[in-house]
Amino acid sequence: MKLNKLKIGKIETSGNLLLAPMADVTNLAFRLLCRQNGADITYTEMISADALLNRNRKALLKGLSSPADRPFGIQLVGSSPEKLREAAIFIEDEYKPELIDVNMGCPAKRITGTGCGSALLNSKTAVYEIISEMTAVLKTPVTAKIRILEREEKTLEIARLIERAGASALTVHGRKAKQMYSGSSDLAAIRAVKRELSIPVIANGDIRDEESAEATLDFTGCDGLMIGRAAIGNPFIFKRIKHYLETGEKLEVNRQAQQLEDLKTYVALLEEYNLCSSTNVRMHAHWFTKGLHGSRQIREKINNLKDGKALIELIGNYSQPK
Ligand SMILES: Cc1cc2nc3c(=O)[nH]c(=O)nc-3n(C[C@H](O)[C@H](O)[C@H](O)COP(=O)(O)O)c2cc1C
User: Over the stretch 215-248, which tens digit does the pLDDT of each residue have?
Assistant: First the structure.
């Protein structure tokens, strides 16, 4: 039995599997689906602190949370400690998430170009100020998500600062920013951070099946596992990993039937929460139908549909070609 409880600040979950924040992916419907499959904590995609503080925030925050998706974290991205603090106060008041996370790992140019995401890791002062400004005023536990740095000592320095500034947990993606998604996640670097800190450390990067989940937990000794890409179009990954960590046995599943079932539930959840847009459904339908027999036909049909109801009907009536 390797599935442990996870305690971050005052929140405690019976398992330690977290859904990673992912732009355009981890909307409320997708998070609910991952939760139904066993995710213990979910994170929203990154939300810009600047955008949150301007008047258009209503559209940005449409369908952000539901009592069914708890405990969850809202991830903020920004570079100004004051704006991040103000944005965090706003979301704490409005949404009362269990966690507020700061994105210190995104390597995309459009993010680092404005000094946000992994660019923050270049400035120890900025990292410390951001976390300490937030923890000084918020009741909600603050977490941070980083990538590793060029040298281990630099990574540990940043990790220690984040802890000292009052963060309640730290997620480490074991790649450097310049790697983007190439190479593999460095478990030894994650383990070094885990050994250095007293707050919970969550391991992230390349957890894609039962074996990689077990190996990451065993090797790093981390308090939790955060899963990103492997959950896209495949939220069932949480059930598989959870079952394996609890029993040491693998679940037998017809992956194709499961993906189709999950796609139907996903679209139904989008409808229920009034989040159905054709772009969103198309994107996720592509992911969910990956590897499915006849996926080309269903994708073509999906591409030609405009309205959410028709999409639900199409997916509802779809049965795999024999
Ligand atoms: C489509 C996509 C969107 C992402 N968006 C975010 C984001 O908004 N915030 C963040 O901290 N990381 C983001 N990430 C990074 C993931 O959270 C995670 O750190 C990374 O994918 C490594 O984990 P994995 O190997 O399990 O996918 C994103 C990754 C992908 C693939």
Answer: 999 999 999 999 999 999 999 999 999 999 999 9
Centroid of ligand 1 to alpha carbon of 317 (angstroms): 33
For residue 170, give the CATH number of its domain: 3.20.20.70
- Residues with C-beta less than 6 Å from any ligand 1 atom: 20-23, 25, 45-46, 75, 103, 105-106, 145, 173, 204-207, 227-230
Contact 192, 155 (CB under 8 A): yes
- Token readout for 288 is 């969910």
Please say if 34 is a catalytic residue.
no
List of residues 6+ apart from 316 with CB closer than 8 A: 264
- Which domain-ending residue is among 247, 266, 287? 247
Report how far apart the first and last C-alpha atoms of the chain are (Å, whole number): 39
Tens-place pLDDT, residues 298-319: 888 888 877 667 777 777 777 6
Whether 154 and 183 have beta carbons less than 8 Å apart is answered as no
